[in-house]
Amino acid sequence: MIQGVIFDLDGVLVSTDEFHYLGWQRLADSEGIYFDRRINERLRGVSRMESLAILLERATKTYSPPEKEAMAARKNAYYRELLQQITPRDVLPGVLPVLEGLKVAGIKTAIASSSRNCPLILERTGLAGRFDAVADGNHITNSKPDPEIFLLAARRLGLPAQVCLVVEDAEAGVTGALAAGMKVLAVGFAAADARAQLRAKGLGDVSVPQMLAV
Ligand code: BG6
Ligand code: MG
Asked: Which of 44, 60, 94, 209 has the most CB atoms lying inside 10 A of its own CB?
């Protein structure tokens, strides 16, 4: 029986994923590196520096570690510029009713996001303070598909992995959650992932009883 639900942030609770794409595309264009939406799919759920490494696979010159740090910082500045537009209206459909339903059912909730901008996004969307625990990119060494972030979130909830359900929109996230020994509800870009125990277009298309019965 599920006792805790652990949510990814980008693409599950808020659609910041388009802003990530625009930030990377702007960086790639300024460096003359080929980048497109298909390559961007591989960055979903992956940490900032690992995302940069994927983008640099198409680079024609080699960059030193300090140059890479500077590029990642530039992308983050572009991204944070776009994040200024985010308001509570950008919380995805179904999120607030699901959080309310889980609260009524006495189910604990947590965030497990690779993003180091997680606190800013939670603040700007009004979601801060609505979760029993938050684990984000500032608290981990190994990003998804490593299970570390999910295990940290469960530990912060005081729950064993087997009673946790993870909601994910990234292939790397589904892999990490399953490796942590948790159940998965795959949504959005991961909605066709056959490895997940439950699949839905988004949180607006699944009920709390369905989530708890996996
Ligand atoms: C994840 C996104 O949530 O956070 C990735 O899906 C992103 O695309 C990662 O690279 C790290 O985000 P940030 O905000 O720390 O650069
Ligand atoms: Mg995501």
From this structure: 44
How many Å lie between the centroid of ligand 2 and the Cα of residue 61? 30
- CATH number of the domain enclosing 167: 3.40.50.1000
Nearest alpha-carbon partner for 211 in 178, 186, 174: 186
103: its two tokens: 């609260």
Residue nearest to atom 2 of ligand 1 (CA): 45
Domain that holds residue 104: 4-15+88-212
Residue owning the nearest CA to atom 8 of ligand 1: 44
How high is the pLDDT of residue 19? 96
What is residue 116's predicted lDDT score, i.e. its pLDDT? 97
* CA of residue 8 to ligand 2 center, whole Å: 5
Q: Verify whether ligand 1 is closer than 6 Å to residue 39 (CB atom).
A: no
User: Coil, helix or strand for 168?
Assistant: strand
Mean pLDDT across the stretch 177-202?
Answer: 97
Which CATH number goes with the domain that contains 57? Answer: 1.10.150.240
Tell which of 83, 111, 127 closes a domain.
83
* pTM of the predicted protein model: 0.96
Other Cβ atoms within 10 Å of 117 Cβ, number:
22
Reported as a single tens digit per residue, the pLDDT across 140-187 is: 999 999 999 999 999 999 999 999 999 999 999 999 999 999 999 999
Atom of ligand 1 nearest to the CA of 137: 15
- The H-or-E segment that residue 39 falls in is helix 37-41
Check pocket membership of 23 for ligand 1, CB cut-off 6 A. Answer: no
User: How far is the C-alpha of 214 from the C-alpha of 198, rounded, in Å?
Assistant: 7
Q: Which atom of ligand 1 is nearest to the CA of 9?
A: 3
Mean pLDDT of all residues belonging to the chain: 97
